[in-house]
Amino acid sequence: MAASSSSMFNGERAVVVLFVCRVLFSLPLSLLCHGINLAFLSLFALLLDIRADISAVSLPQFNTRQGASSGILLGAVTLPTLMISKLIQLTRAYSLHQIELQELEHMTMQYWATYASCFGVLMFICIVMWRAPKATHHRGSYTVWDLISLFCIISYAMTCCVSLSTISLTGLNTALKLIWELCHGLVAVKLLQQLVNTFPSCASIGEVLLVTAGLVLYFGDMLACTIAKVSSHLISTEIISVQYGIRRSEISIIIQGLLIGLLLFPMFFKFVLHVWEWSLSMGRSEARTSNELGRSLLFFTSLGFILTLIVPSWMQFVQDFHVHPVLWVLKFVFSEPFKRLSLCIYWLALVYASVSRFYNISKNSKIERILLRKYYHLLAVLMFVPALIFQPKFLDLAFGAALAIFLALEIMRVWKLWPLGQLIHQFMNAFTDHRDSDLLIVSHFSLLLGCAFPIWMSNGFNDRPLAPFAGILSLGIGDTMASMVGYKYGVLRWSKTGKKTVEGTAAGITSVLAACSVLLPLLASTGYIVTEHWFSLILAVTVSGLLEAYTTQLDNAFIPLIFYSLLCL
């Protein structure tokens, strides 16, 4: 019984519950219905998380990463809680007449889309558990679980209908919005199954759930934005105006088009490759001798076609660029040539010096790989903090370009394309850990996205100047100091089976608070209006630090989002 209780109420779940309670405590009355739904989602996810870990129920559909817990609770609540934190922030702005109602309603629809994706996946996991072989169950032992799960599902449907009806003028519009949210849930389930089957043993359920919800939201936003441009009569005008009629910046459109184009590119390339191989099989056998070179030429030709023709065409369709998006980017960079080109040279010099140095160390030294990886976290601080303070818009664009390059290189590595595929694999393999695999290396993606996502989310209204720095502070400083101090001086461990130490966690929390005490006066001197409350800041830093100590999930992906959500309150 004691072992069962400790398993049910482990540190990771306790921290996540504390995180959700902190956000719910900050809700204004106007978001009460959203908060009730978030509570139901958290309860549903908690039950499934506990049931997956302590029961004999197997999940054969999920071939997850070894050594990690299911992470269902953390993966299910992170993005919806982030969205409701943004809603709280935008509600403050609307009450002060600093934003239009349209922007608030747009974020409301984004929240429900995210919520539907996560809840749809939870329902799928629940059905899988219900259909598990009866031999693994004790008869009647899951009656309470099933009743509570059914209660959460019914409560979700009722509160969702009530909330969406408050931002709809007619019952038809409410029905259309419910269908739109239902589509998000169904697509999320199919995408999660596809990701698990395509990349087995590469992630936990919670990590795949986080990625799935994010991708569905991003693709759904692109699809609805495109439909809204094609014709306002294809779907309800109110849905378009409420959710996708807000003004978007050229940089956000460029980033969205570039990333979605690269994410869809493997499917396009696979089709083209099959057609090419079929044509070779119909020809002479001598034509197959240059197969490897031909695949590479086909890859780069297809990639160039997508990035120079298809993606820019979509960008120009949904946004009035007046010039080709590539020319717009060049014009943007050279609008302040000295600052932005100097920043590019500074970045390239740092990357070249660091990569060459650390790669040689990784091959010839006995230094722990975890410490080598943390040097890249420190590198992120040196690269991104100056740019975020003095050139935030250019940093937005640079993050998108860097992520696009990472995606292209990972595609080359996975497909083993000549001449770079094997070289990229050898280089990346020098910095991998147990959370990476030969099939998919995610550490560099999670670090870059962990730093970039809070900055992207802070575009527009932002009354919390530290919020854009959430990823840089939590990963570049907090996570790095926690690992280094814990590795060298740690004695007291948080758990018998884990490696995280109390000393490391204390060092991480202290270092982030120290960095904030330096950063806040610097931001005030550059014109930012500092509105941070130290109690809220200490609580946010402490919660994210404890999550780093307890979680077995990919912390680079979750900690910045948790920290950012708490900073927005």
From TrEMBL:
Topology within the bilayer: Multi-pass membrane protein
InterPro entries, alphabetized: Polypren_kinase
GO-annotated molecular function: dolichol kinase activity
GO annotation, cellular component aspect: endoplasmic reticulum membrane
Ranges that cross the membrane: 15-48, 68-89, 109-130, 142-166, 251-276, 297-317, 337-355, 375-391, 397-418, 439-457, 469-487, 507-528
Keyword Endoplasmic reticulum among UniProt keywords: yes
GO biological process: dolichyl monophosphate biosynthetic process
E.C. number: 2.7.1.108
UniProt entry tagged with the keyword DNA-binding: no
Subcellular location: Endoplasmic reticulum membrane
Cross-referenced PANTHER family: DOLICHOL KINASE (PTHR13205:SF15), TRANSMEMBRANE PROTEIN 15-RELATED (PTHR13205)
Name the record gives this protein: dolichol kinase
Highest classification ranks of the organism: Eukaryota, Viridiplantae, Streptophyta, Embryophyta, Tracheophyta
